[in-house]
Write a structure and sequence with these properties.
alpha/beta, 2 domains, 13 strands, 40% helix, Aspartate Aminotransferase, domain 1, 367 residues, Aspartate Aminotransferase, domain 2, single chain
Length: 367
């Protein structure tokens, strides 16, 4: 029998939202009849410009892509006005999280994150033989950044903060974030994950601060998966000091981001109208959904991002019952959260299907 590394027993496996295929097979529901609101995907699909371009470009899949994605890097440089030597492209921002742990953590080094942050941080920290330091949150999962400073030790190497946070939607004020960053020793890498920032306001982002300072220890993560509707292309990127970018390139796989993925994301950067449409859909539907929930006495957490949490003391059972009807929402038990479940904001039609089925379940449980 293969003798695995000892740390494997300590690594929590990341549990993703269930796929349409999983649900279809389990419940015998046709895929086209399933409403998936579990993985924070963009319900509008990808931008049409990207779809058309990928069709025309499919004949070139025999070509290896550029190793560092120089063409996409230069497009990102132009779009954000940040030098391409301060940008790294990964196979989704998830790959970059893993690589950041690998370039910073030696066995026994500590890494800090909040208790209900994106679960992958913990998996990657443990996989790199790091010691996980989790910070408790306050009421309704609010995070106090001052607690981060109290947990810094001599062997602390990296800190992860998602802003907005997945799965709770909590958002930390920009000024508070900057004050925290400036108090953290430069030998510690601080990673701010802005996967959902486009659903709030760009002014809330730390990008302007990064441009002005290019701090030696600040990394900002972004992704094409959410507002751009390109989760299947698997492209994430980060803004980082050149020294960090060079370290990431040193350990990256020879070809980590496929040719079509790189080219598709170049086109996506031209789709400002699509981004705006996606953002407005979420804003409009959130307001409408919350009015309905309030009218029915349902407690929820709005948060930032394209999702929200619903308070439900029978969350596990509710999620299972909705799933049996082809409505898929996110069970938060893998996060240790038993009394909430997460719902992605879908189209008006999808949201109505969810609300109809959920409110029917609530009335049954009351009866």
């Amino acid at each position: 029998m293969v003798d695995f590394a000892n740390r494997l027993n300590q690594i929590p496996e990341y549990v993703p939202g269930k796929s349409i295929e999983n649900i279809s097979e389990k419940w015998g529901i046709k895929p086209e009849n399933i409403v998936k609101l579990a993985s924070n995907e963009n319900p509008l699909g990808p931008p049409q410009k990207v779809v058309e371009f990928l069709k025309s470009e499919a004949k070139n899949v025999n070509i290896y892509p550029d190793r560092i994605g120089i063409s996409l890097l230069k497009k990102l440089e132009e779009y954000y006005s940040i030098p391409h030597n301060n940008i790294f492209i990964g196979n989704g921002s998830s790959e970059i999280v893993d690589m950041l742990c690998r370039i910073t953590l030696n066995p026994g080094d500590s890494a800090i994150t909040f208790k209900y942050e994106f679960a992958l941080y913990k998996t990657c920290i443990k996989a790199s033989d790091g010691e996980l330091v989790e910070i408790e949150t306050g009421e309704k999962f609010k995070r106090n950044v001052e607690k981060v400073l109290k947990e810094i030790r001599g062997n602390t190497k990296i800190i992860f903060i998602a802003n907005p946070n997945n799965p709770t939607g909590d958002f930390i004020n920009k000024d508070k974030m900057i004050k925290l960053i400036e108090k953290i020793p430069e030998k510690i890498l601080i990673v701010i994950d802005e996967a959902y920032i486009e659903y709030s306001e760009e002014d809330y982002s730390l990008l302007d601060y990064f441009k002005k300072t290019i701090r030696k220890n600040l990394v900002i993560l972004r992704t094409f998966s959410k507002i751009y509707g390109l989760a299947g292309l698997r492209v994430g990127y980060c803004f980082a000091p050149e020294k960090v970018v060079r370290a990431l390139r040193k350990i990256k796989l020879p070809v980590n981001v496929p040719y079509l993925s790189q080219k598709g994301c170049e086109i996506a950067l031209q789709c400002e109208d699509f981004k705006e449409k996606s953002k407005r859909l979420v804003e409009r539907e959130k307001k409408r959904i919350f009015k309905i929930l309030e009218k029915n006495g349902i407690e929820y957490l709005e948060g930032k991002g394209n999702f929200y949490l619903i308070k439900d003391l029978n969350a596990k059972k509710t999620v299972e019952r909705l799933e049996s009807k082809g409505v898929v929402v996110r069970n938060l038990l893998p996060y240790g959260i038993e009394d909430y479940f997460r719902v992605t904001v879908g189209t008006e039609k999808q949201n109505d299907i969810f609300l109809k089925n959920f409110l029917k379940e609530k009335s049954k449980s009351k009866g």
